[in-house]
Amino acid sequence: MTRLTSEIVIPLISELDRYDRELNKKTGKNLKQIAAESVGIDVAEIDDIASSISAAVIPITADGGVIDGFVDAVRAIISHMGFNAFVTKQKDVSGLAEGVERGAKIVLLADDNRFIAVNLKECFVADNSESTGKGFVTALKLMAEDLKERKVLVIGAGKVGLSAMSRLKEYKAAIAVYDIDISKAEKASELFGTVILKDLNDVFRHYQLIIDASPAKGILKKEHITPYTMIAACGLPLILDTEALKLVKERLVHDPLQIGVATMFFSALFCR
Known about the structure:
This protein is α/β, with parallel strands linked by helices.
């Protein structure tokens, strides 16, 4: 999981309404609706139980320590979707105990290696990397209207990229993968039958639907963008350079936490 910074996460807390409006403009659905579709749940079913569900977000001090604003941003995302969410006053094990004692049904916690949501009653763990891949593919599908037999390029074959490819296969997309580590691309090909690409410069314009699940920065240039390019970018930093971003910003879904957290929360809640 890419380590976030307070400069990235703190501003999103006050911008969730604007973010929802942008998502709706690009995909026809808001954050809650995208996350619900990602896990195969009707929004009405979610709304029916929202008032009875509480979630605890637990600050974890392991590894690099607690990122200022991170737990507050996670809490804000869950609250934005209509649920009761709180940040525990205690940290680490004491925080987990506090969450359970305060009646949380779902607990969320992260270190530098994993970010998870746990359904305490069902003993079910939802992983953020997997949820992020699914959520962003769903957003791309909504933006493109359909992915069946459409050519989709996945950049990055780590945990998020593999999850994205799994969902793309369910959507019957024609998947291509690029990773600077060819062994990762080969693993993806074995799992999902993907085409392996070795030189991005020759293929960007031939793949107008792109999932960015890589840590690469600025490798997608303005000459690679067509009027039909659509990108779901779950990677940090953003793969687009400044000029490319200007050309595709109305056909780009990108955020540091929102879709992944929302999808992970619903995945844990409904054990999917």
